[in-house]
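Q: Convert this sequence to structure tokens.
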Amino acid sequence: MELNTAYDVVHGNREIQAIDLQESIAYNVNQRSLTQTDNEYSTIENTGYNTAGDTKSTESVLDNKSNTKRIRQEVAKNEYGKKRFAILVIVAFVLSLLVAVAALVYTNIELKNQMISTNKQIQSMNEQLNNQSSQQIQILQAQLSHSILLLQNNFSEQLSSTNKQAQSMNEQLIMNNQSSQQIQILQAQLSHSILLLQNNFSEQLSSTNKQVQSTNEQLNNQSSQLSNSIIDLSSNISEQNKHILRNLNDAQSILKELEPLLYLGTINNPASSCSDIPQDRPSGEYWIATNTTSSPVQVYCDMNGTSCSCNIAGGWMRVANLDMTDPNQNCPDGMRLVTRTTAPLRTCGGQIERQVGCTSTTYSTYGVEYSNVCGRIIAYQSSTPDAFEPYFTNRAASIDDVYVDGVSLTHGQSPRQHIWTFANALDEVRFNGYVCPCTRPDLTYTGVVPPFIGQDYFCETGSRQAFIIGMFYPDDPLWDGQGCGGTSTCCEFNNPPWFCKQLPQPTTDDIELRLCGNQIPDEDSPIEIVEIYIR
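A:
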């Protein structure tokens, strides 16, 4: 992107300069010699490109030891050194390429500055030529006017003198009563003198006109030469632009080919986690190196942090993505597909229908360390679940027992560490230990929320009316933050559907989902969507 921007700036400035030069040609009719312009252009034409690069090399030495175990360790180190050497060579090549591209951009900027300087010099030359041409024309006009004035004055003086002579001669003829023949001779002499004066005046005027015409031709020739020089300069600049564009396209093609090596998260350059990938990269599939697999694995990374709305920057790795509205998806291990004849839904239930206890499935974190968890679970109410009633009737229950009708999300073992609980309640009509604490916030809750989950839970019912044993409620999904009754605040409590959890300390544990119920045959919470991220 930076290369394209640099090119656009340089290329745009050159187009503006070419237009300015062409307008200068049209505006300046009279120009002078091309010598200085050719000298200025030769400076631009001799501009070159320099690239710099450096190479790095590394050496690895393998010390042979007699002990077999230490030899194997040294061999492994040597293999690691070879891989590291290959990566360093690639990095050196990429740095060399980036330096070359930077030099190319710098050369383009220098060419632009030289073009600006050349344009200013040409403009200054045009102004000087205009001033000189205007001064020469003014001098010629003044000389011509002066010559004409001198001719007129000379002609007037000679004519006046001749008239005086004629008058004097006439007076003498009259006075002396000379013959008409003498008068005719005098008149002929007078006509001859006048003709000589006229011829002399015409010759001087013709000579002056030739001088003016010659000067105009010289100015026109200089203008034509300068115009041709500017046209050649514009053509050369256009060729330079094409050459630079080809170089930039070549550089972009090379960078595109090297992109898998330049960026973290590719199969050839896997990241250690999504949070290690630069956050200006788009959300999508990336490769990470794991501690639990021998080769990199591909995972989805949310790079802008918008999935969970936790007000935490991007770099979230998705570890669970179940969406049973997609007919191509199947239930995870440990669960079974549940369909209904009364509603077109595909959901996942316990391994055995209406089994007392919990059905478990585990989502791998690939050994990635995390301290934040976010996600959502969407399910449905089937029959008469009782929210936290299992713990209410058995206060000795722990997080490893059935303490809720719904879903328990944990990490670790012996004991499990709580992340979030999703409670499925009876209805919104009654208010006792079988419903959500948020059903009637104006009344005192008679049930008990397990102390080991604190406030980290969602609780909702799908029944707005009194419960019916065996009823399935497809019209109001659980824990989606919608459809709660008029007095209930369950759709606002902890802002479902997305939960955000900061763990007390970082961990690499896998995440366990348990679907639980403590009675048969009338309690179930079939799941439709599971989406969980870690960071």
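Confidence is low (pLDDT under 50) at residues 1-65.
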